[in-house]
Every structure is written in structure tokens, then in C-alpha cells.
Automatic annotation (TrEMBL):
Organism, scientific name: Hymenobacter yonginensis
Pfam families, A to Z: DUF4142 (PF13628)
Domain DUF4142: 50-185
Secretion signal span: 1-20
Keywords, comma-separated and alphabetical: Signal
Keyword Cell division part of the UniProt annotation: no
InterPro entries per record: DUF4142, Ferritin-like
Upper classification of the organism: Bacteria, Pseudomonadati, Bacteroidota, Cytophagia, Cytophagales
Protein name: DUF4142 domain-containing protein
Length: 191
């Protein structure tokens, strides 16, 4: 019987190519995978997976809000937009600290950086100047806050974990206030 090295060589090449892609992984997708693996190993329910994904998504969106708001504090032309950015950055910083503590208590991993789509949005925003920057910043805030409000509203009722339900319910009013302020700002900015 002859032994062939071709299948072994193919397996080694496949393994090596997988290693090369590790450095380009999306930080948000990576922690979602890590949390799902951890949860899967612990033999928990789908609702617990939903809780973990919510925590990661909330952290990711909060980081995006803080990042773009810090940029807006420097680049915005409107003093009102700068003030809004300062308010949002501060309040999301507080929420992010509470979310980090919650994740630590639940043994969940949070992303260390923005996801690929979020990084692209930040790049597109940063490329703008003047009133176009202000409008894009406000538009991006509205988009992110609408999605966050939907998630926080759902999880304030449906989260499996009581601490996650409480977290979602307690931060939902802040997110709604941010959206309201952002919508008012959008109406005030020149088209």
C-alpha cells in the first residue's frame, strides 16, 4: 500500500492559510464568536446567547458613539453639534463603564475595537469637513441610536438574565434622550 502526502500537504496549507487570516479578524465578530463558544461549552440556552450578543453589540455601538463624538468635538463647525457630541461622549462613557462591569460579572468578552463596518463609517465621517461633517455626524448618531433603542427596548423585557434586563431598562431613557436631541439637531442644521 502506498502512502500519499498530497492529502497531508493540502491540510497543512489550509491550516496555514487559516492562521494568516487571524490578524485581519473583525474585533466585534471575534468576541461574538468567543462568547458563543464559551456559552456553547457551558451548555446554555439560546436566550443566554441572545443576552451575550446584546452585550457585545451594545458595547460596540457605544464605542462607535464615543469615537464619532470625540471626533465631532474637534471637527464640528456648529457649537451646538460640539455640545451634543460632548454630552453623548460623556454619557456613553458612563454606560460603557457599566457595560464593562456587567460583562466582567457575566464572564463575557467585549470587543477592544470597532467592527469593520463601524471603522469604515468612522473613516467616511472623518474625511468630511464643515457643515457636511456636522450633518453626517448627526445622521450617523440617529442611525446608531435607533438600532440601539430597538435592542435595549427588546432586552429590557426579553433578556434571560435579570442584570442584563435591568441594564437595558436603565439605559433606555438615556438613549431615547440622545435620539430626541439628535433629531432636533438634524432639523436645525442647514441642508
Amino acid at each position: 500500500m502506498r502512502f500519499s502526502f498530497a492529502p497531508c500537504a493540502a491540510a497543512v496549507l489550509l491550516a496555514l492559510s487559516a492562521c494568516n487570516t487571524e490578524s485581519t479578524k473583525d474585533p466585534v465578530a471575534e468576541v461574538i464568536f468567543q462568547n458563543e463558544k464559551s456559552i456553547g461549552d457551558a451548555n446554555v440556552t439560546e436566550r443566554q446567547k441572545q443576552d451575550a450578543e446584546f452585550v457585545v453589540t451594545a458595547a460596540s455601538r457605544s464605542m462607535l458613539d464615543m469615537e464619532i463624538s470625540q471626533i465631532a468635538q474637534r471637527k464640528a463647525t456648529s457649537p451646538d453639534v460640539k455640545y451634543l457630541a460632548q454630552t453623548i461622549a460623556g454619557q456613553h462613557g458612563t454606560m460603557q463603564a457599566a457595560l464593562t462591569q456587567l460583562a466582567n460579572n457575566k464572564g463575557l468578552v467585549l470587543p477592544k475595537g470597532l467592527g469593520a463596518d463601524q471603522a469604515k463609517q468612522v473613516g467616511e465621517l472623518t474625511a468630511l469637513n464643515g457643515p457636511a461633517f456636522d450633518r453626517k455626524y448627526v445622521e450617523l448618531l440617529k442611525e446608531v441610536h435607533k438600532a440601539s433603542i430597538d435592542d435595549f427596548d427588546d432586552m429590557s423585557d426579553d433578556a434571560y438574565d435579570g442584570d442584563i434586563r435591568t441594564f437595558a431598562a436603565s439605559h433606555l431613557p438615556t438613549l431615547k434622550n440622545h435620539l430626541e436631541a439628535t433629531e432636533k439637531m438634524a432639523d436645525q442644521l442647514p441642508k
